[in-house]
Amino acid sequence: MISLLILVHSDIRMDEVTQAVEDLKKEWSQAVSQLEESIAAIESCGKTGRGTEEATSLPRLNGSAQDALQLLKSLQFRLDLLAQQLPTFDEVQSGQATLESWDEQYKKLRASLRNANLQAKENIRKVAQEERELLLGDGEESTIRRRNLQTKAGMTSAAESITESLRRSRQMMVQEVERSASTLATFDESTSVLRKAEGEYQGHRSLLMRTRGLLSTMQRQDVLDRIILTIGFIIFSLAVLYVVSRRIGLLTLQRKLAAAIRSSSLSAEDIVTKAQHGPAPANVPAPIYDEL
């Protein structure tokens, strides 16, 4: 029953891993689209003729692009962890191939971002040169333009400060999410190790129970063997005593028979002597015969 539950949980776990990989692929596509939009916006900086405004918005666009790059890097790391847990060998190979293609795409997007920044700086430099020439000129148009630029520069600076603060907060949140994902992956790995240890413990427990039963059987057999040996020794001792007693009885009987036979022989000799010589005188003592 326990093994069946472990098998069912393992299948559920594999389905969860496969679904997590699919979700990562969707997140990767969204992050790539967001990064491509940021790169296109950076590359178009300075082309609309608002060099100063676009120059102040360039750090914000770069911050957004850097966040997208960090997200892509995080997705690569998570895919690398999940690819090793896929249920079949083909799916593992597919995950590794996807990881390699993501790495190549990441490098291309990074190079595109660098080229877009170079292009944006060149565009902003050209627009700034034109604005400088216009501001240095005389006339009411130049004065109005200087005032508008100062107002817009102040507003843009405040907005950029808020945006930078939000970007740093978002970056910290992304780092915390990555750390939490890594911790969850470690917990999942520890849980799988504990399940394996539990299965091994159950196997050892059943083995120990069988060993304990065998030891009990051996102890009972040992007691039975001792009882049999004791009874056998008692029977053997009784037999020896019986044989010895019988042997002693036979020897006694033999001695009695020998004595009886000797006494019978003497009586027969006395009868023959009396018959030949007559009765013995009264005053003559009876002859004494040596038994030997």
From TrEMBL:
Residues spanning the membrane: 227-245
Localization terms from the record: Endoplasmic reticulum membrane
Keywords: Coiled coil, Endoplasmic reticulum, ER-Golgi transport, Membrane, Transmembrane, Transmembrane helix, Transport
Annotated membrane topology: Single-pass type IV membrane protein
A GO MF term: SNAP receptor activity
Top-rank taxon: Eukaryota
Coiled coil: 99-133
Protein name: Sec20 C-terminal domain-containing protein
Residue span(s) of domain Sec20 C-terminal: 157-248
Gene Ontology biological process terms, A to Z: retrograde vesicle-mediated transport, Golgi to endoplasmic reticulum
Pfam families the UniProt entry points to: Sec20
Primary localization: endoplasmic reticulum
GO cellular component, one term: SNARE complex
Record's keyword annotation contains Ion transport: no
Family (UniProt): Belongs to the SEC20 family.
